[in-house]
């Protein structure tokens, strides 16, 4: 295993996991647009959990979505994907810490450590895929409503939370890919088991070295 690449991959995956925790509760996933409005008295912004409004004086008023079943299907799916991303990232961090070469958790069995690190890389990669799917799906619905001339509701633009989510997904995908590459064994020597060496017996008897060659007994 390449220790430097392994450490860099873990750092990327960890930063991606942290940004998932930042993006998930971020209030600004979409912001009401000012395009076509002459006078704007309030700004509305939403995320997966709440809807907030801010007037010209800076007063904020937020409310949680009243019912899960009344939400749009894509919002429910994005919630599930983001939570799954957070969980898989947590598992990836634990597995990577156990499987890293500098860790003493699995001893000196580098084959086992490589497999555990590979599992951690897979979790980071899944984390990135879940996050990318959630934020891209949410952004697609924003753009679809924005460019639909027959849409009667409030039109929104992409908010800061989605950019944080895209950054998180990119870091997690890069970290997972690098970790999967770094867990590859550098040479075939690491796969060979160590030869058995019997323990030395401490006793008063010491065998004298033989003075005869092998041919002397023939």
UniProtKB/TrEMBL annotation:
**UniProt KW Transport keyword:** no
Protein name (record): Claudin
- Cite the Pfam families for this sequence: PMP22_Claudin (PF00822)
Q: How does it sit in the membrane?
A: Multi-pass membrane protein
The free-text function statement in the UniProt record for this protein reads:
Claudins function as major constituents of the tight junction complexes that regulate the permeability of epithelia.
PANTHER family recorded for this chain?
Answer: CLAUDIN
**Does the keyword field hold Nucleus?**
no
Keywords on this record? Answer: Cell junction, Cell membrane, Membrane, Signal, Tight junction, Transmembrane, Transmembrane helix
State the family named in the UniProt similarity comment for this chain.
Answer: Belongs to the claudin family.
């Amino acid at each position: 295993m390449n220790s430097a690449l392994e450490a860099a991959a873990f750092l990327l995956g960890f930063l991606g996991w942290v940004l998932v925790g930042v993006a998930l509760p971020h209030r600004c996933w979409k912001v009401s647009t000012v395009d076509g409005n002459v006078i704007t008295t309030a700004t509305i912004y939403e995320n997966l959990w709440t809807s907030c409004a801010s007037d010209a004086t800076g007063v904020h008023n937020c409310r949680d979505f009243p019912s899960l079943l009344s939400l749009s299907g894509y919002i429910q799916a994005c919630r599930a994907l983001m939570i799954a991303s957070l969980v898989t990232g947590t598992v990836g961090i634990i597995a990577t810490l156990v499987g890293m070469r500098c860790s003493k958790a699995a001893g000196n069995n580098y084959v086992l450590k490589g497999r555990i690190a590979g599992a951690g890389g897979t979790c980071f990669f899944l984390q990135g895929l879940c996050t990318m799917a959630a934020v891209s799906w949410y952004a697609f619905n924003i753009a679809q409503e924005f460019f639909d001339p027959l849409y009667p509701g409030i039109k929104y633009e992409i908010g800061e939370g989605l950019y944080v989510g895209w950054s998180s997904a990119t870091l997690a995908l890069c970290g997972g890919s690098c970790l999967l590459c770094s867990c590859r064994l550098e040479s075939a020597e690491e796969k060979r088991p160590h030869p058995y060496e019997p323990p030395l017996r401490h006793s008063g008897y010491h065998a004298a070295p033989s003075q005869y060659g092998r041919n002397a007994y023939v």
